[in-house]
Amino acid sequence: MKTVGSIFSEERKKKGLSLETVASSTKIRKEILASLEAGNWEKLPHPTFIKGFIRNYGQFLGLDTTELLAFFRREYDEKRVVRETKMFLKMSRSLITPTSVTVAISTLVLLLISGYLYFQYESFTGSPFLEVIEPRDNSKITTNEVSVVGRTDSEAILKINGQEIQILPGGAFNISVSLATGFNSLVVTASNRFGKISTVKKVLVVEQPIAVVPEASPSAEIKELDLTVEVNPNSAWLSVEIDSKKVFEGILLSGVSKDFKAKEKIKLKTGNAGSTKVILNGDDRGNLGKEGEAKEKEFHI
Known about the structure:
By secondary structure, this protein is an alpha+beta fold. 34% of the residues lie in helices and 33% in strands.
């Protein structure tokens, strides 16, 4: 039967890591790592701290921490039952009466129920898991667009710079974010229904991209829609379709602008109309609506 300890031990050995290496990388003492792999819960501090060690060790090895914590709760409860049962049998040898048996069983049941409720409460009211895999912090890039990739709890509310993001099944997310040239700060948050919030911050520097001069076309000039979207003072989620084909869906950070061209029409959706200004063929049309308002707009030749 799989245990938390066996999963840790097998994965560590598979990766060719020693306990000393893991301890140095995770800042978890070697003795604690050994107890985790041996399942010696009684040698470790309060269950809340044990769960924190399991999360950190599991994330370091790239394991599913939700599954690991489920194994831990089962193992911890089973060991508690064994300890309480041994204590009950020891007491029963010295004094066994109908009353003492009833009291002992009732106490044991109460302890089990209390322990189960406590662990459930801890699991549900803790801060949600949040991991941002890409982009790496303090990255220097030459493009004004980046994919934000990561994982969180499937029931969490995910936001990037205040804009709510749709989470994929299983808690994964992958969203395009448009950046301004220079310094950019990404703030990713995951919150649950208890108000607990996990936050990951990333700093990105966009270096001035090399301008590409388009070749002159010998054909006659074609009339086009030329739409510029400017986002300010807050970030905004956008979806853009050009001539019925989606070309962009993601977040524009505050201060970022993006240009779009179409031969027939442009369909624009925004999650924050008050911070979304449009300029159509050089004509400033102003913001699309109120701050925080979701809105959809079409522009035609």
